[in-house]
Amino acid sequence: MSTPTQSASRRKPLMILAALVFIAIGIAYAIWWAIYASNYESTDDAYVHGNLVQVTSQIPGTVIGIGADNTQTVGKGALLIELDPSDARIALAQAEAALAQAVRHTRTIFVQNDALEADVAVRRADIERAQVDLAKAQSDLKRRQTLAHSGGVSGEEILHAQTAVKAAQSGLAQAQAALAASQAKLQTNQALTAGTTVAAHPDVMQAADQLRKAWLADSRTRLPAPVDGLVAQRSAQVGQHVAPGTPLMTLVPLDQVWVEANFKEGQLRHMKPGQNATLTADLYGSDITYHGKIQGLAAGTGSAFALLPAQNASGNWIKVVQRVPVRIALDPKELASHPLRVGLSMQVEVDLSEPEEGAATVGNTGFKTAVFTDDSGKADALIARIIKENLDS
């Protein structure tokens, strides 16, 4: 039977060995941390985000057709919602008629210029004749007045000569008034047509703009898909009367999703845009790895932008470690091979090494669509056709 001294002597090497093992593990962990782990930060508080493109009406109307439903994939420009076009088409027809009338009225003003110039020339000739008649009447009156002293002309003849002078003066005054009226009308017409043509006249251009407005209202009765995407949150129903701005459905372009990883504030010390990140999705498991780059860090913590921000100045304050959203852009090829859905959970690990030069500008820098302006040339073509038809008629 072993004595206590012998048992203690046997435990001592084991304790020394255990201590050496723990020391070795600590040294190995320290080396691993210094070489590898200290250059990485990870979190499982990360989710897929994406653009939620709302489809809304720009005009009031009644839904008469729905071209896509939830879970369906649609291409950019596809017809999603159709509104009753009756009122818009009536307004468009009225605008077309108003443009035609404006062209004809303006064309008449231009034509009147030539007629008014000819009328002014006629009025001037009338004045010359009236002046000649007045001079002749005055000469006859003077001659008779001279003969009246010798008794060669009766008083009645002198009276007739005076009447003729007054008639000639009245005729001259009328001719001058008619010339002034014609000149005023000519000046007015010339002011309306100076420096322009029928097609470029302000009245015609105003009518053309009203036609564009009516054409635009008619085109807005058909709501196209602004982008390629998956239909979600369809609320539109056939027969529903909608107001401008009413959300009718949502499009989610799944090729433009990104990940928002919510890192603790202490993990952001060495984090910057352009750094590489590896990600795994709970949807596919650890077998599928995504590669991305940090696109940017949010301007504030999640609580700062919450609907009800925390009141840290209150008396019952308790310090809570805050998290800051970090946006990570994904590799488009990997995303196409293994699509993600908005809201899915992700595991994220960021390499804190200095990013490569030029890697800081990653991801989408802007979004735009041309589906609402692709057909704008049709309105200009319609306006040009109406102007030409009413000029040539």
Annotate the secondary structure layout.
Elements: H1 4-35, E1 40-49, E2 53-56, E3 61-66, E4 73-74, E5 79-83, H2 86-148, H3 155-193, H4 202-219, E6 222-224, E7 229-232, E8 241-242, E9 247-252, E10 258-264, E11 276-281, E12 285-297, E13 323-330, H5 332-337, E14 345-351, H6 376-392
Antiparallel strand pairs: 1-10, 1-14, 2-9, 3-5, 3-8, 4-7, 5-6, 7-9, 10-13, 11-12, 11-14, 12-13
Characteristic key phrases:
alpha+beta; single chain; 4-stranded antiparallel sheet; 393 residues; Helix Hairpins; 6-stranded antiparallel beta barrel; OB fold (Dihydrolipoamide Acetyltransferase, E2P)
What does this structure look like?
The protein is α+β, with helices and mostly antiparallel strands and 393 residues long. Among the domains are: 53-87 and 224-252, OB fold (Dihydrolipoamide Acetyltransferase, E2P) (Beta Barrel), CATH 2.40.50.100; 88-216 and 378-392, Helix Hairpins (Orthogonal Bundle). Helix content is 45%, strand content 21%. The chain has helices spanning 4-35, 86-148, 155-193, 202-219, 332-337, 376-392; strands at residues 40-49, 53-56, 61-66, 73-74, 79-83, 222-224, 229-232, 241-242, 247-252, 258-264, 276-281, 285-297, 323-330, 345-351. The strands form 3 sheets. It has a 6-stranded antiparallel barrel. Helix 2 runs antiparallel to helix 4 (202-219) and helix 4 crosses helix 6. The radius of gyration is 46 Å and the shape is rod-shaped.
